[in-house]
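Data availability excerpt. The first of two example chains:
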Amino acid sequence: MINKATILDGKNLSNIIQKSLALEVAKLKENNILPSLCVVLVGENPASVSYVNMKAKACLNVGIKSSIIRLSENITQDELLKQIEFLNNDKNINGILVQLPLPKHIDTNLILECININKDVDGFHPYNIGRMYANIDTFLPATPLGIMLLLKHYNISLKGRDVCIIGASNIVGKPLSLMMLNEGASVSICHILTKDLRQYTLKADIVCVGVGKINLLTADMIKENAVVIDIGINKRNNKILGDANFNEISKKASFITPVPGGVGPMTISALLQNTIKSAKIQSNIKA
């Protein structure tokens, strides 16, 4: 059977966005404004190292200055807070990104709360989360923002649609639900304690899944012509796989994101977009 679903090509759209951002950065440079991003990497988690390197490469592609501060996994919480305070006061740094997850002995919420709200390009500070909740312009978390940009590009409206989000993390699930709610969707959030996941997914026009479990979402769990957004990243036999059974679901869905090449590249572009926004705000230019 031939796959019927249209592929939501995040890689291609990300390239288009980055070309546009490169032009924007060039204009800023003409006014002596050089957007800059500093990533703080604690420890040597292989996945985190890979993500950080991808972000640095993307910055280079669009002309954003990037730097990486590599810290020992054994760094104390106070030492990390002092490092962030230094970056908060550095006028040459526009965006600060603390790569998650952090070691267990560090209070992640405390660290994120100490980042300057105008340099919070990850959009995780409670201030920016509150503005997102109130649907006021702010820094939006990169992965949910990337998903919203992808849906908009393919003219997939959220207004009046039923959405099921599997995964209630502070990084993706919760902010994505708010952003979709703000666009007029009716949203259900499912998690590990949800009693009957299938009853939610079968009713949904759009299903988003991101919990880190291969083939959690199968074709019999979605209705005909549903839109499926796979946010999961898993490794098996040196292959990167999502949380949705792509081969099965692509025969039933109307749209689906591939893994890799779907949400991942869009996350990077959204981060770059936020970094440019931070540079504008700090230079008193309307973002």
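And the second chain:
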Amino acid sequence: MTGHSDLREVSFRLPRCHGSVPRARAILRAKLGEWRAGHHTLDDGELVLSELVTNAVRVPVPGDRMVGVRIVCRENGDRLRLEVSDAGPGRPEVRKPRETEADGRGLLLVAALAHRWGVDARPAGIGKTVWAELLAPGAGPVPPEQEVAAVTVRPGQCVRAWGDWRTVLAVRSERNASGGPVVVIALDDHGPALRLHAAEPVTVRPLGPAATS
């Protein structure tokens, strides 16, 4: 597993059996809890992952082929990408089953819950990867980032600090012992403020839905 504060990722493989579906859900729930992700995407994420893994274990392939799962969590849970790979041919398509049919609604559910979804050929080996991306309610595209001098930072922006995005609550100017200009940036986690030389570069972005969780 790799991960830093705004991108967390885990990949694992599962056998092609019915028990892999609850196991995938349990891993998703455990990882999102470990990463302190918001709960708003968890329920939908479990449903989507269940459908993707269910479809993958039903694909008619040799028995020793396993199902690959990749979970990527961004923006403290506001963005969740789920990928499930199998060795089967073809591309799954959304069906509209009759009311009397018990199966065939998996991708309908995925399409309804996901912000977007798709199917990609596996870059190495045979088969395909079916993926879905979920957004928390109200989350929109990530605002653009830019590097600016610390003296230009304003309240309401987000700054990159200690490997994470923090909302700027207040900014004030001071002088250091030698008389040089210092910018003190108070952040939303109530931890230590940033104390930077006025000209020191800082990565910022506007405060947007994806930065408020």
